[in-house]
């Protein structure tokens, strides 16, 4: 089930390109979220899928730094 805003369903659309996704997620983490779990919950995205997609190009999440690198 998708979340609703004012009665309309929406889904977070993430960049397809892994390098742009890397930059997008790290910017969100830096500016708005204290953890990857919080970002994923708020944006209604799968943490496992996100970690796998960024991991497929060599990035891993560092919870102490709250960023992928």
Structure, explained:
This is DUF4250 domain-containing protein. The protein is of the alpha+beta class and 69 residues long. It has one domain (17-68). 46% of the residues lie in helices and 12% in strands. The chain contains 3 helices and 4 strands. The protein has helices spanning 18-32, 36-43, 47-55; strands at residues 4-5, 8-9, 61-62, 67-68. The longest helix has 15 residues, at 18-32. The chain is globular, with a radius of gyration of 12 Å. The relative contact order is 0.18. The model has no long low-confidence stretch (mean pLDDT 89).
Explain briefly what this protein structure is:
This protein is an alpha+beta fold. Helices cover 46% and strands 12% of the residues. Strands 1-2 form a two-stranded antiparallel ribbon. A two-stranded antiparallel sheet has the order 3-4.
